[in-house]
Amino acid sequence: MLLAGQGVIARADPDAQAAYVPTQGNLEAREWFQDAKFGIFVHWGLYSELAGGGKSGPAEWIMNDARIPADKYERLAQFFNPSHFDAEAWVSSFKAAGARYVVFTAKHHDGFAMFHSRASAYNVVDATSFRRDPIAELASACQRQGVRLFIYYSQLDWHNPDYYPLGATGQFAGRPDSGDWNRYIDYQNAQLRELLSNYGPIGGIWLDGWWDQQGTAQQGQWQLEQTYRMIHALQPSALIVNNHHQRPFPGEDYQTFERKLPAGDGTLPLEMSETMNGSWGFNLTDNNYKSAATLIRTLVGAAGRGANLLLNTGPMPDGRIQPENLQTLAEIGSWFKTYGRSIYGSRAGPVLPRPWGVTTRTASVIYVHILDWRDDRLFVPVSSPVKRANRLADDRAVSFKTVAGGIEIRLTQPDSGEWDRVIALQT
After folding, report:
1. Banded model confidence at residue 39, pLDDT cuts 50, 70, 90
2. How many Å apart are CA 218 and CA 244, to the nearest integer?
3. For FRET with 352, which of 5, 135, 261, 324 sits at 20 to 30 Å CA-CA?
4. Omega before 165 within 30 of 0, i.e. cis
5. What is the DSSP secondary structure assignment for residue 123, as one 8-state letter?
6. How far apart are CA 188 and CA 222, in angstroms?
7. Where are the chain's structural domains?
8. From CA 89, how far away is CA 85, in angstroms rounded?
9. CA-CA distance, 389 to 398, in Å (whole number)?
10. Distance between CA atoms of 130 and 132, rounded to whole angstroms?
11. Which distant-in-sequence residues (6+ apart) come within 8 Å of 184 by Cβ?
12. Judging by beta carbons within 10 Å of its beta carbon (0-12, 13-18, 19+), is residue 16 exposed, middle or buried?
């Protein structure tokens, strides 16, 4: 993921997107993505064995943060044998939580492939005693359970000697002060080709690490047009997103925002990613778990801005999901059973986000999500005539009256544990 403090340019660039013409299948996939609203991010790799390195930094960055040379880091592959990994159990937990898609880290910045890659022996099948392909198993489980699989792939690589100039990170990996950039791009594209050719339908490719080359002579040589053209040729419906924190480049199908609520302009679908505690990968000492209430309110805030929430979990080295994460996922799933119809298939509502909350909308219903309001009346500036108002939790009628510029809703105090008071307005 991104280094702390790097900025985000939130606006899409319509002129750049005009050069790319998506297929009908791709446009339909975008609609599906916007309807889905909730996905699970999975950060899992060799770095999980080091459990975050205490307070040294984010778990998946341990090779960089602890200044581990690549030849020493490679030894972690000898110890990686997650005997409790169960793709069906993972996907079942994610689906029960209400997630419609999963984004799995096929290769993070450390350069280790969590799939069987012919482009490099530095992969989970050839370099470990585990000798299983997690992506193959996840792809099968997702297909059986009706969950779409997206693939995360880091363009940044602290291990490959052809990744040169070295970029802003990974300076202590012991790589040579030389390399063939074009050969590295060929290597990257070969692995992406494998991911798109060997695992059935892929929902999308989630790229990261472009930002590492900002400020170097190579920054303009990522050859994104070539890479994106290849991805769309292999799977036209697959969506491309790049965590570069710039305006979208031609060929990209949605924008993602890291740990912040998005502010797009409607040109492309939107997504925000967030962690359950402070780390993306497994960190044994990171106990800063966010409550289910906090995460649901984040989900609602994203939906009110027309965006998805991509919620991260960092599985343990043995392949199991952290029990704290499973508990949180179960609570989110329970919430979805009552309130899911105000989220799934919705778009941003007619009222811009307010200090008290947000609105979402389906065909004929406006959902007022009240997150922070204690008074007994709330003015909602809607222009459509409202026929009926009711609490989504129990369908009880809510008193309202039409006033200048909208309606005024009469409210009772929120129930205990009512993290999001949802009022459905029939229009």
Report:
1. very high
2. 15
3. 5
4. yes
5. B
6. 10
7. 22-346, 349-426
8. 9
9. 5
10. 6
11. 157, 160, 162, 163, 164
12. middle
CA distance 99 to 36: 8
**Which contiguous run of DSSP H or E holds residue 231?**
helix 224-234
Query: Is 70 exceeded by the pLDDT of residue 9?
Result: no
DSSP H helices in 280-425: 292-303, 323-339
CATH class of 349-426: mainly beta
Helix (H, G, I), strand (E, B) or coil at 292: helix
127: tokens are 């370099």
Give the Cα separation of 303 and 74 in Å (integer): 41
Residue whose pair of structure tokens reads 């991010």 in the numeric block: 41
Q: How far is CA 39 from the centre of its chain?
A: 6
Alpha-carbon separation of residue 85 from 137, 148, 190, 276 (angstroms): 10, 19, 27, 20
Q: Is the dihedral of CA 102, 319, 96, 420 positive or negative?
A: negative
Q: Using alpha carbons, select from 242, 240, 224 the residue that is nearest to residue 26.
A: 240
pTM of the model: 0.94
Residue 319 has pLDDT above 80, yes or no: yes
CB environment 111-127: b (16+ within 10 A), e (fewer): bbbbbbbebbebbbbeb
Backbone angles phi, psi at 6, to 5 degrees: -75, 145
Instruction: Pick one of 3.40.190.10, 1.10.940.10, 3.20.20.80, 3.55.30.10 as the CATH number of 22-346.
Output: 3.20.20.80
